[in-house]
Amino acid sequence: MLTNADFLALEGTAGNFTATINLRPRYIDADACTACGLCTQYCPKHHVDPYNEGLAITRPIHIDYAQAVPATYYIDPSSCLFLQHETCQICVPVCQSHAINFKQQPEERKLHVGAVILSPGFGKIDPKTLAKFSYGKHPDVVTAFEFERMTTASGPFQGEVKCFSDGRHPKRMAFIQCVGSRDIGCNNGYCSSVCCMYAIKEALVTKEHDPEVDITIYYMDIRTQGKDFDAARERAEAIGIKFVRAKVADVTPWENRLQLTYATLDGQHKFEPFDLVVLSVGLESPKDAQKIADITKIGLNKYDFCATNGFNPLQTSQEGIVVAGAFQGPKDIPESVTQSSAAASLTAATLKKVRGKGVELKTYPEEQKVAEDDEARIGVFVCHCGINISSVVDVAAVANYAGDMKNVTYYTENLYSCSQDAQEVIKKKIKEHKLNRVVIAACSPRTHEPLFQETLRDAGLNRNLFEMVNIRDQCSWVHAGEPELATVKSKDLVRMAVSKARHIQALPEQTVPVTPKALVVGAGVAGMTAALNLAEQGFASVLIEKGESIGGNLKNLHHTLAGDEVQSHLKTLVDKVKQSKNIDVICNAELVQTAGFIGNFASVIASGSGKDKTEQTVDHGVIIVATGGREHRPDKYLLGKSKKVVTQQELEKQLAGKAKTRAPGSIVMIQCAGSRGDDLNYCSKVCCNHALKNILKVKEINPDSQIIVLYRDMRTYGFAEDAYTEARKMGVVFIPYEVDRKPEVTQKGAKVQVRFFDSIMQEEVTMSPDLVALSVGIVPDDTDTLSKLLKLPVTANKFFLEAHVKLRPVELSVSGVYVCGLAHGPKPVDETIVQAQAAAAKAAIPLVKGYVKVDPIVSSVQQDKCIGCGLCVSLCPYGAIVMQKVDGKRKAETVSASCKACGICAAHCPTFAISMGGFTNEQLISQIEAFGATGDR
Amino acid sequence: MGKAMNNREGAVMILGGGIAGIQAALDLTELGFYVYLVEKSPAVGGVMAQLDKTFPTNDCSL
Predict the structure, then answer these.
(1) CATH class name, domain A378-510
(2) Among partner residues A109, A119, A200, which is closest to B55 by beta-carbon distance?
(3) Percent of chain A beyond pLDDT 90?
(4) Partners of residue B40 in chain A, C-beta under 8 Å
(5) Where would I find the beta strands (DSSP E) of A255-352?
(6) Which fold has domain A123-284?
(7) What's this model's pTM, rounded to 2 decimal places?
(8) Mean of the per-residue pLDDT values of chain A
(9) pLDDT digits (tens, 9 = 90+) for A862-889
């Protein structure tokens, strides 16, 4: 990790680059700094805090935030008195660990690397663009970034929303969307793709802080096209956040408030007063985009983002250099994360030959033996979580309470237990006080348990000698209004954990070998891309397809919005798959049965039909689910009843044909036909782009064609916005409709008639176009069967549910199973390709390692107590218990690698022969007893 | 991430230590490559470290 580093030069070619990096001095010795913060307290100079968007004052010597990595302070030379004027130096003697070193010089370093990933993020909109909204002139106009810091509990105002002008709490607030995006005035014609989401998020958070505040969001289109994003918008509307479709002209100071001038669709100009105005600023290309392009010789698009192609969305114009994240185009966190994994898999394929040559494996000190009858020496650490916990719970009282308990050898408080310096403290205290059990009372074990367990291992303790208490979610958050009771509850929980900790034991770390092969289910673009990428990384896969041939939905598409030919790309892809020695394609195939666990699956695949039907068993280590989706066919708007009503896909096919009349003279397109709360409860993400793609094609063939698009929100996010702009320039008419006033299509003799309410002219319109094209949405292909077979959860809309929507977007809850493409949710081809590459990266991880670690918390059967009834086998939802003959008697045994530690077996065993690692009956009973024993410590 | 050793085979440079760069670095190390994560500011984390909560579930962002 090289921080404070500038990228100066890049020479060489793929596989053999030399990068030149300049490391700017921190003026603090990273190894010596303990991040105690004393220097910041003594530093006399003020420094505007960029981490807090300039809303707070820090000192030139500081750290951005407590959890920063590396956890080393630094001196900002731009305002340091010594570095500017050679005076002061107060910090030098203050630092107890003598870490401050003004003699540090910039250091140039050459890095020899095989490949480069560019992930420089995004830039911010020029404040000049914001001037018309009085930004910079009136303190109560803020950007959404500034507002985010304002609402943050750990931010400069501890989450209090107030007006900067006089500190009052705002009664009326406005969000203005598309500031610096979809704005040709500032040369940002594209949509920034994230602002609608963050505005809704910030509005919801504000309502949580103060339910009385009146919030209006002024928008052109609400673009919540991501998976399950529309639901958040509906939630916002339900709690009274107002959405007004209007273009905001300006914001001007008016008495002690702000006046917002806006124009609604019907051409009216309106005024509205507000206390606080938040500008939903867009994402711009990174400030140093041009510099990066000059150094790496990669191409940029007209907006200075990295130029890539829709079929190879992360490949820059230079071999060996790929891009990930917002530099490829504005995008949100899950898509950035997906792209990063995809970029990793592309790089891994490029550098396949040198894999594993440069890495050192992390080693841990030998584990300290903790015998069952050793005296328990428990260390209790109670976390403030900044003010997240301590603003409600009396943390000191909880820590002192724990200190009085039996077996508690050491106790303390931490400001942030998760910070890097806190880990060092925990390690030190474990050694100093010979602790053999650790209890941390902090936040959720879901996010932080692995971190603390790693710290235990570093200190030579088995990671299961650990108990975590969640006094944030379960105390300070849910009982925010009752601080005293929240403190009592925290004490109760800590007492229970300490009591359990007296009984916890070390559990063994196990590993199992991995079969280095993947099973890919579905041979559309997602499955093919994933299998090909794995092949390029050197791993074999079996690619099964239920249809006659591979290719999937791509077979129905002809060109992309960017103008690329789909069929020629599909042919290349299919040829590559067929020629690959690493890919075994089975068509007419279906997955009948899968047994086993990550690293060791065995699947039965049936292929052929009738008499030719055969079954084969394949051993494999991972599964990629790419079962795809298809066009939804709503029984609406005369679809299937009139030849003049077609879907966008049918129109695309017609346009790719040769018929002279293929581009009709008049077309009405109806968006969201059957979607967004109709047959389908969600947005299908691709339909707006699909409509525009067809519009541009129609106009190319027949420039005189009259096209009207009836829509709810045009969701041409990202660079697709350009196509929307172009279509409007060509005279295509876009008219929004309200959900309670949907258009109607009726048959009139040989003609079809469309009736709709024109919200611009404010009148009912009836017309008889040559063709009605419906944007119909996407449904997943049968996910039920696979969901039952592999025990994979699906969403309410029947798409597979990923393990974590933000941070694990291609992993499923069952280890070793990954998802990509339409089976995960509706998305365009480029996003499908990236997701497939990401799934290949995740799937390759166990294949590369050759082994998987088994979680130590699994069930185990005490076989002398087992009566062989088999109840556990029938109840286990993961097939993780098998019956075996031991000395001629039936006995149950756990398959550790399959066990998910749900505990159903242990709860049902009639003879208490099954216990759960880390949750034995003895441990749980002591915890329960401690709950009741308030007086007994 | 170990001490600097500038002549490793199988090394990759990632420019930018925001969520995208960090995720790519994590995946690449798991895939068996050495990573130089080059970040211009004093800490990795990027913009996501400035966010309080994330859409649509309002989970904590840190």
Answers:
(1) alpha beta
(2) A200
(3) 78
(4) 4-7
(5) 257-264, 269-274, 276-281, 283-284, 321-323
(6) FAD/NAD(P)-binding domain (3.50.50)
(7) 0.85
(8) 93
(9) 999 999 999 998 888 777 888 989 999 9
